[in-house]
Amino acid sequence: MAKFHRLKISEITRETADCVSVVFDVPADLKSEFQYIQGQYLTLKIFVKGEELRRSYSVCSSPVADNELRVAIKKVQGGRGSTYINEVAKPGDTMEVMTPMGGFYSTMSASNAKHYVLFAGGSGITPMLSILKTVLASEPNSRITLFYGNRDLASVIFKKQLDDLAAANSSRLSVHHIMEQGAADEMHTGLLSQDKINAFVKQYVDLKGDNEYFICGPGPMMENAKAVLEQVGAAKDRIHIEYFTAVIEATAPKSGDSNSIVSKVTIIMDGEEKEVELASDGMPVLDAALAAGLDAPFACKGAVCCTCRAKVMEGKMSMDNNFALTDQEVEEGYVLTCQAHPLTEKVVVDYDQP
């Protein structure tokens, strides 16, 4: 199970007017805990006016190409966590950081000869930078094509890094900037609509090739890319999506269900067991765990980040929403506890399962 550790901020770099990247100093005794895979994220505890906020941010450094742990944080209008880090946080500050999590990656192998096709919008470039740097360093026979949407040139995060990487790896990395204003040509002007994405795929992607597709950015852009890839026949297990926020409204809490039951739910955490009674139409198991005094891991509480993932060892549970677990994980019994409700009179759910 992921744990929080207090880390010092060693560097803050202004990337754009509304985005910074933050480097955390990981002491030698925690190096193994903070080993990460390209595309994963960190959850931070941010205290604003005495209130604890939990926010997840993707790692933009590469575990094989870089010697640091860096995340990028774009200031969101009305976002208290992102505003604090962009405007208040400074090098030397310490922050509680959860060990890396997330499944937005595919397994690297030096023998791979794949085409990685990346669709990013705005701050969705953060995990993509980690992925493409790792591919370049780990898979000499693979290549990458990045389609990156932004408002204008000034809003392009990591513009210089991307340009430098593309110049140094011109035969393996192709970067396409799609902008509402100031784009290179008509094809690269506008939003990443389904029509535009379809045109890019037809021109730059061999659909019969060994392709991996990664999508991260604003909700509509991600849904457009997913829809196009499904329409052209891309294999479902080759389409990887990282949701920053839920793309639909969360299901309303259950009420008035004549078939509701009260279940005895055993929660396993850190090798210890805690039993709670939980109605099938009541609060999700995460809230029950927190109410019982357990320090259960969570971040978004919106079925997006996967931080609250646990495994059902006995009984059955249902989820209101799921934007994070793969079909295989669900089949294996994993649930997002922020969305999970008991379906049987006895349930055992284990946070300690890998």
Summarize the helices and strands and which ones pair or pack.
Blueprint (H helix, E strand, L loop, with lengths): L3 E13 L2 E7 L15 E8 L2 E8 L10 E6 L5 H8 L6 E5 L16 E7 L3 H14 L4 E8 L8 H10 L4 E7 L14 H11 L6 E6 L2 H13 L7 E4 L19 E8 L2 E8 L5 H7 L17 E6 L2 E3 L7 H5 L2 E3 L3 E3 L3 E5 L4
Parallel strand pairs: 7-8, 7-10, 8-9, 10-11, 12-18
Antiparallel strand pairs: 1-2, 1-6, 2-5, 3-4, 3-6, 12-13, 14-16, 14-18, 15-17
Mean pLDDT: 93
Strand content: 25-35%
Number of strands: 18
Secondary-structure element pattern, one letter each = EEEEEHEEHEHEHEHEEEHEEHEEE
Key words describing this protein structure:
single chain, 354 residues, alpha/beta, six-stranded antiparallel β-sheet, five-stranded parallel β-sheet, 7 helices
What would you note in describing this structure?
The chain has 354 residues and is α/β, with parallel strands linked by helices. Helix content is 19%, strand content 32%. The protein has helices spanning 80-87, 125-138, 159-168, 194-204, 219-231, 285-291, 327-331, and strands at 4-16, 19-25, 41-48, 51-58, 69-74, 94-98, 115-121, 143-150, 173-179, 211-216, 239-242, 262-269, 272-279, 309-314, 317-319, 334-336, 340-342, 346-350. A hairpin with a 2-residue loop joins strand 12 (262-269) and strand 13 (272-279). Helix 4 (194-204) packs across helix 5 (219-231). The radius of gyration is 21 Å and the shape is globular.
